Amino acid sequence: MFTINTRIFLPLLYIVWSDDLLTADEFKILSTFIQNQDWLSAEEKEFLDSKLDLALPPTRSGLNNWRKEIAEIVAVNPKMLSLFDLQLKVTSSDSLELYREDFEVLEQKLGILGSEALLKFTQNDKNQTYNYETDSTFAVGKMTSILDGDVADAINEVKKVISTPEFAYETSTDVNVYREKVLEWCFILAEKNLGNRAYPKKYGGGENLPEYFAIMETLSYHDLSLVIKFGVQFGLWGMSIQSLGTEKHYRKYLDKIGKLEIPGCFAMTETGHGSNVKGLQTTATYNHAEKTFTINTPTPKDQKEYIGNAANHGQMATVFAKLLIDGTDYGVNAFIVPIRDENMKPLSNVEINDCGLKMGLNGVDNGTISFHNVVIPKENMLDRFATINEKGDFISPIPSDNRRFFTMLGTLVGGRIGIPRSALAAAKVGLAITIRYSDQRRQFGPEGGSEIPILNYRMHQRRLFPPLAQSYALHFALRYLTQRFIDKTPEKMQEIEALAAGLKAYTTWHATATLQECREACGGKGYLSENRIDRLKNDTEVYTTFEGDNTVLMQLVAKNRLAVFRRQVSEMDSMDKVSYVWNQTKVFFSEKNPFTTRDTSDSHLLDTEFHLKAFYYREHEITTSAAKRIKKLIDSGLDAYDAFNVAQHQMIDVAKAYLDRVVLEQFLIKIETLEDSSSKTMLVKLAQLFALHKMEENKAWYLENHYFETSKSKAIRKMVNQLCWDIRPDAVALVDAFAIPESCLAAPIAKKI
């Protein structure tokens, strides 16, 4: 039974037992302190010691009773400043005031901060972290309109379709059941003329390429196996006919492909050659007497591999093969080759195998195809860029084999636009699920207070808001790329191809990283299949390989940027070179002077002109450095191929710096066009966060190159934290603006309550 003297220890006893951080030694410190107090009787010391027996801890109900009793005292004495003040109030006596200093020394030895200890006995819901709540400073509908742009009607059309009962998710673990369901969905989309949207109206299409990409992107909210099946059938298979064929092919195939009457494949990749399309070994030998081609797979490593639609549903394929005429190799060309008969049985000289279970996308029937001297008519050559005349001679309007090859591939850039847009949609779904959940999931909180939404924690914001900002930035960058592809001219195609390759890599890497962060940010709930993130992660994993391995594509981007740089330098006359040096000197004095490199003012750090200049500077310096290094290696006698190999890591840096700049620049350009002030203000914050977070990621480079000093680097880090905090109230509204159908979120943790 507590006495007046022993009651002074009640708050301490509660604290030591409720604090798991106290060690056995600290219990001993308290026990020793008690034994040294002459004002305690032997019985009181024995009683208190019994309350410190590690083998006999107080019960949970006992601890709760202690806390309740003390909390009632705190409630009527709210102005207490120290733990010892509380201890005196618990005794209802001031007679022990003369021991205040002894108890304060004890607190220090136990590592107890008195002011914080008092919080254990107060209901504390008044702090800033607790009270920061979801709000919206902009109209969600207006932001959605900005995102959808002039393809909003097509987007809404697709959302309506995928929200119907027919598109309920397939939950069977049987791969064949899943594949048939995805095929059924494709038939529904074909019936609604969504697959043929890009084909000419003359052949049943909608003649609207922007809408086709918007349809594919919106379908990505639903099921990614459907997206890839859709993309293979109506995109790769159908558009290879449209892009590489001529009028006779359009008349014969396009309408039927758009109606899914001819399921087809796009057979480019080979087992042994991967991204090296120029090295494909499948052959198409021309037989002039019969006016036919013989398609053949020379060795097992030359089989077509990972071909969508091949294992179950494809009847025909666009096959990329080396054209051989009288033993002369005329490079890779494209041919229409049947692979199954009307009963869907593989042709006798076509060997088809199933790639089997994959990490994801198991609703797509990927397979391998080997051709054993398959004979096709001459008209099956897709002859937009090359053909064979009546004499049996190879003719082409493009005399250069190299240029013809890249012109042919350039018409297929659409795949490198569709894949990143699909990947970004998947990342948006992951962010929508995670940010909604984080706004509702409560965990921890101040001592004595309620639990707090985890979205209020700064580190959680750090994990989710920079990817959210980058997703918005990429949305507009990919729309910019799409428009450039639609408006393409021959002289701009190389640049567009490089940009498409780069944004495909940049965006799919972003999606992979974002979905991993989303999974972890949802804790164990993110691991449950019902919450969709597992499917999104697994299905998008191969996006970094689709349409070219990302690292290979980034090298393609870098080579293009170096070629542009060399061309610009070589075209300069003496006055241009003087001007160039002068401009570089101006950069040095305007951006690398001590005042600027040390400027940590908010106005400077949030200035979009500062951001863009910093991105341009990094891009220019990295590109110049890589060009100089490669030239130096070649001048020293190294073969050009070897020189590029030595500098490969720098090549990737060149590509990343270029893409960072393009993404930021296009985001800022779009923001400038907006009329709605609240949406514009919100997007400016996201652009600031994107820019500063990228600078923070690359701070080592900026510090090494003296673009800013350590004080500025630290200030940038702090500003990223502040922007995350400022964006938090709008976070849910920002993902709501994606307007992802509720049926597509389909995650219990994403449901609003």
Q: Summarize the main sheet.
A: 6 strands, mixed
Please report the first level of CATH classification, the CATH class of the largest domain.
Answer: Mainly Alpha
Number of strands: 13
The averaged pLDDT comes out at: 89
- The CATH homologous superfamily of the largest domain is named Butyryl-CoA Dehydrogenase, subunit A, domain 3
Could you give the distance between the termini? Answer: 48 Å
The percent range for strand residues is 5-15%
Oligomer: single chain
CATH topology-level fold name of the largest domain = Butyryl-CoA Dehydrogenase, subunit A, domain 3
How many structural domains in the coordinates? 3
Describe what you observe in this structure.
- With 753 residues, the protein is α+β, with helices and mostly antiparallel strands.
- The chain has three domains: 4-122, no CATH class; 164-412, Butyryl-CoA Dehydrogenase, subunit A, domain 2 (Beta Barrel); 416-750, Butyryl-CoA Dehydrogenase, subunit A, domain 3 (Up-down Bundle), CATH 1.20.140.
- It is built from 32 helices and 13 strands.
- The strands form four sheets. Strands 1, 2, 3, 5, 6 and 9 form a six-stranded mixed beta sheet that branches.
- The radius of gyration is 34 Å and the shape is elongated.
- The chain starts with a helix and ends in an 8-residue tail after the last helix.
